[in-house]
Design brief:
The complex is a heterodimer of chains A (279) and B (290). By secondary structure, chain A is α/β, with parallel strands linked by helices. Chain A contains eleven helices and ten strands. Chain A has a six-stranded mixed sheet, with helices on both faces. A four-stranded antiparallel sheet of chain A has the order 2-1-4-5. In chain A, a hairpin with a 2-residue loop joins strand 4 and strand 5. In chain A, helix 3 runs parallel beside helix 5 and helix 4 packs across helix 5. The longest helix of chain A is centred in the middle third of the chain and has 16 residues. Chain B is of the alpha/beta class. Chain B contains eleven helices and ten strands. In chain B, the strands form two sheets. In chain B, strands 6-7-8-3-9-10 form a six-stranded mixed sheet. Chain B is globular. The chains are: A alpha/beta (279), B alpha/beta (290). Chains A and B meet through helix 10 and helix 11 of A and helix 6, helix 10 and helix 11 of B.
Chain lengths: 279, 290
């Protein structure tokens, strides 16, 4: 397995007289993996994201992306080409007058030849199912559609890693479902490495692995199934369990002999069905 | 104070190529002291609707009455300042509107803008900050050093300090983490119960609408298509689905379970505890006892 992100002893603070926002973080991400980084607002998640594409540099420790140290000025643009980022607010990420222009902007900025741009553009839009909106003005799109265009802009640059920083938190429920579907497709079909930074645990259910952050430190690491075994802990640090997990715990407390830790509603329905068949 | 919509129509950019009908002959009644949630798809007219209540928008046709003040399409706008003192508006991401050097000054700005003397404004600001649960050790700090959830509470304190009778909340929990969400919703629940404030909340979260409000208004295509108690509205699942709306997660789950078990439709439940009890009844008693 190729380690595409390696973080060692990373610490960061915005000001010398302020507390550390990130404290001695160490973790790695494998190529093709989906890692969810979860924590409440102010836990240091977004600062970490900015460290991963060299927008800010570690004050202690190191960050390596695809083998390149983000502190090395000579390779910083190689790092940024490898890492695409989608931010929280869909309205802050548009520069083009149309969807097509907007996706082209990033490629143009990266010096991609015109013929290549013409080839990649429809492919990127098809990928996020926005090809019929190529000529639309961005402000006429819904929040979820805007975020998908932001992803298309990134896909067109052919990165290895996509970081989604609270990319669903400003969307309505439908927009959120849309984005999660797109993320799963990116990761499962396209084998892109996905880092989703979120406080929504129902989004993190689909990740291969989760890192839980609190006050700038990694406090838990494991598969979603492992992490959801300690509901009290997650609630204590300001997070909310997915509905199926919460209901599963309440049912168990009320004496329903559930064994599996169901993460999704479908899993819980199936488990209850099996239980009833054996009663 | 009661709020009434009579045949209200609103057209954006009339007589231009961008003309758009946002509200279409709306009739509504929101009683004083109620907690009303407004749900609907993006573009269904929710925001346009609530912006009529404090006179940010004027009807193209019809009239809106809030307490003793009436805004009629065919008449000159009444004294909007008096209306806006009574009807507070917490916009989406209200923390973006903070601007003062200190938290206390920011909260004083609202009442002073309505002519409340400085000393009285300060007293009100302190009361409001206590209500939203921001400790006094913070009051003389800059609002910009606070976390997102805290900043939002300061912005809400600014609206409370004006002493409104009605508060309109446009997606009050958007972008907050789960704990921040819970805190804000509990705060408004408390304000509603303790001070008999009339609350009107625009939300995408069906669970919140079901749990907190006593009336749910469903908007679609610029019209209120339902206006009733939450348990009545969310029992009309098929109709909600047709206009692209969900039911609360509790009901979504029970639907999946009853479909699997071959049971009939279950009356709406909104809390995890009630859902668990329903599941247990389904497991034990089969279908008859649900």
């Amino acid at each position: 397995m190729v380690r595409i992100i390696e973080v060692g002893g990373l610490s960061y603070r915005y000001n010398e007289d302020q507390p550390w926002v990130l404290r001695d973080l160490s973790f790695s991400v494998n190529k093709g993996e989906w890692l969810a980084i979860i924590g409440h607002n102010g836990s240091g998640k977004s600062t970490l994201a900015k460290c991963l594409n060299g927008l800010i540099l570690p004050q202690k420790g190191t960050v390596h992306i695809g083998g390149f140290d983000t502190k090395n000025e000579k390779t910083i643009w190689d790092v940024r080409r490898m890492v695409g980022m989608v931010f929280q607010n869909p309205d802050n990420q548009f520069v083009g007058a149309t969807v097509r222009d907007d996706v082209a902007f990033g490629m143009e900025n990266n010096g991609i030849p015109r013929e290549e741009m013409i080839r990649r553009l429809p492919e990127a839009l098809r990928f996020v199912k926005m090809e019929q909106f190529a000529g639309s003005e961005p402000h006429r799109l819904s929040g979820g559609q805007k975020q998908r265009v932001a992803i298309a802009g990134i896909i067109a640059l052919q990165p290895l890693i996509v970081i989604l920083d609270e990319a669903t938190s400003m969307l309505d429920p439908e927009g959120r479902r849309d984005m999660i579907r797109t993320m799963r497709y990116l990761n499962r079909e396209r084998r892109l490495t996905v880092l989703s930074i979120t406080h929504d645990l129902s989004e993190a259910v689909y990740a291969d692995r989760m890192i839980v952050m609190n006050q700038g430190e990694i406090v838990r690491e494991g598969t979603p199934r492992d992490i959801f075994q300690s509901p009290e802990f997650l609630e204590k640090i300001g997070l909310d369990l997915p509905f199926a997990v919460k209901l599963g715990h309440v049912l168990y407390e009320k004496g329903v002999p559930l064994t599996d830790a169901a993460l999704s509603q479908e899993e819980l329905v199936n488990e209850l069905w099996t239980l009833r068949s054996n009663m | 104070m009661d709020i009434t919509f009579e045949h209200v129509t609103h057209v954006y950019n009339p007589r231009t190529p961008f003309e758009r009908l946002a509200l279409d002959d709306v009739n509504l009644f929101i009683p004083s002291g109620s907690y009303t949630s407004i749900i609907g798809h993006t573009g269904s007219g929710k925001s346009t609707l609530v912006q009529h209540i404090n006179g940010l928008l004027k009807p193209s046709k019809g009239r809106v009455t809030a307490g003793k003040i009436t805004i009629d399409a065919n008449e000159k706008k009444p004294n909007l300042k008096a209306l806006r003192e009574k009807v507070g508006f917490v916009f989406q991401y209200p923390e973006h509107q903070l601007f003062e050097e200190t938290i206390i000054k920011d909260v004083c700005f609202g009442p002073m803008n309505f002519g409340v003397p400085a000393a009285e404004a300060t007293t009100r600001a302190e009361e409001s900050l206590r209500l939203v649960g921001l400790p006094s050790s913070y009051w003389h700090r800059s609002p910009f050093d606070l976390s997102g959830g805290q900043m939002r509470r300061v912005a809400i304190a600014g609206v409370l300090a004006v002493h409104p009778e009605v508060i309109i909340l446009d997606e009050p929990t958007a972008g907050l983490d789960p704990q921040g969400k819970r805190e804000i919703l509990h705060l408004f629940d408390k304000l509603h119960k303790n001070f008999n404030l009339t609350l009107i909340m625009v939300t995408h979260n069906m669970g919140d609408a079901a749990l907190y409000s006593d009336q749910v208004i469903v908007m679609a295509g610029g019209r209120p298509v339902m206006a009733d108690k939450p348990e009545k509205v969310f029992a009309r699942e098929e109709e909600l689905r047709k206009i692209g709306l969900d039911v609360p997660e509790t009901m979504m789950f029970l639907d999946k379970l009853t479909a699997k078990f071959g049971a009939g439709q279950i009356s709406p439940v909104f809390t995890i505890q009630e859902t668990a009890d329903t599941v247990i009844r389904l497991l034990n008693g089969g279908l008859e006892n649900v």
